[in-house]
Amino acid sequence: MKEVIVSVADWAAERGDGVLVTLGLGSCVAIMLHDAQARAGAMAHVLLPSISLARDISNRAKFPETAVPLLIEQLKGLGADPRRLVAKLAGGASMFGQLVTPGTIQMGERNLLAARTALRAAAIPIVRESVGGERGRSVRFHVKDGRVEIRSVGADVAVI
Amino acid sequence: MEDVRDLKALQLDALKEVANIGAGHAATALSQLTHRRIMISVPQINIARLEEVPGLIGDPQEVVAAVLMHMLGDLTGRTLLLFPEPVGRQLCDMLLKRPLGTTKAFETIEQSCLKEAGNILSGAYMNALSEFMGMLLLPSVPSLVVDLSAAVLTTTYLNFGHDRDFVFCVETEFNIDAQDGLRGHFLLLPDLASLKAIFDAIRLT
């Protein structure tokens, strides 16, 4: 089993028995794409909901709108067919909720909306999500079968 | 100032001095609360890319108890108090005057206890800064989470900060009873715009 750690604003793609891991998602979102037939999967750990928020936009894995096309390209290289791809999302939590100004949209929520918009633009259906809430998440994505294990501090492992 | 990387050496030194005064008062408060000696480190200014924030303080995979508060008034920003989770539990025991090792989980009373500790420490820190700089500084209510350090730090900057490229913090580490491992971190996170107000107040331009 090959385990690949995906850090913040980073991405990875694997095939076969690879496992893509990202640890400590707070308001960030893990976008995971999977082609069951090719047994291939890719993950991006996106940080910001729009390229308009940053000056340096060279890192495509940082934003949903650039990360989704990047993951599709990488998966094609691994023999996946973009028409077969399905997506899972994890993250976008709202920690320190008491301190949020009422009426504002949180960064976690904005990241989720942007991720869904980018996936819709690429015509990739979202099959499962583990999003929102007040807890951070760590994610293990098995690219062989698309299974995703989600761990949060003080909670049991959930599988989506 | 547009970018935190533009800070000059003299300005960085001045910020550390300001932080040292604040942390000194916070340490005194913590010492009185716990009846123990508190050692504080020389403050450090950490500057990082937003994506490098998980590794800014300690191990990103460590579970921490973190108290975040807004700083309002003449300066705006946040304060973040971080303890490794086992230290957070021991601190609860000290504050609640129970034998060390009693706290197993952060129930309502323990959560309240840590938030109160955050309140007192941040209050002492901000009071010292207020007095030194002749400013009005007000703390918000405290908010507590127990989660992976990486998630806590990225959320702190992403959800509550305004800088999206480079970010910074003024960090003081403190040790309880000078014991190894019984450590915490106090982070002052002023908004970039408030740095100018700090430098003006101490007549550094």
As for the number of domains of chain B, it is 1
Report the top-level CATH class of chain B: Alpha Beta
- Describe the strand arrangement of the main beta sheet of chain A, using strand numbers: 1-3-8-9-10
Mean pLDDT of chain A: 93
Unreliable sequence segments of chain B: none
Q: How much helix, percentage-wise, in residues of chain A?
A: 10-25%
In percent, how much strand structure appears in the residues of chain B? 25-35%
State the order of secondary-structure elements of chain B, H for helix, E for strand.
Answer: HEEEEHHEEHEEH
Characterization of this structure:
The complex is a heterodimer of chains A (160) and B (205). Chain A has 160 residues and is α+β, with helices and mostly antiparallel strands. Chain A has a single domain (2-159), classed as 60s Ribosomal Protein L30, Chain: A (2-Layer Sandwich). In chain A, 18% of the residues lie in helices and 34% in strands. In chain A, helix 1 crosses helix 2. The two termini of chain A are 20 Å apart. Chain B has a single domain (4-201), classed as Chemotaxis protein chec (3-Layer(aba) Sandwich). Chain B is built from 5 helices and 8 strands, in the order αββββααββαββα. Chain B has helices at 9-34, 85-95, 108-133, 149-160, 192-201, and strands spanning 38-40, 44-49, 63-73, 77-84, 137-139, 143-148, 166-176, 183-190. In chain B, strand 3 and strand 4 form a beta hairpin. The longest helix of chain B is centred in the first third of the chain and has 26 residues, at 9-34. Chain A binds chain B through residues 7-10, 23-28, 47-48, 53-56, 59, 62, 93-100, 106-108, 134-138, 152-154, and chain B through 50-54, 60-61, 63, 68-70, 105, 140-141, 143, 145-152, 154-156, 158-160, 164-165.
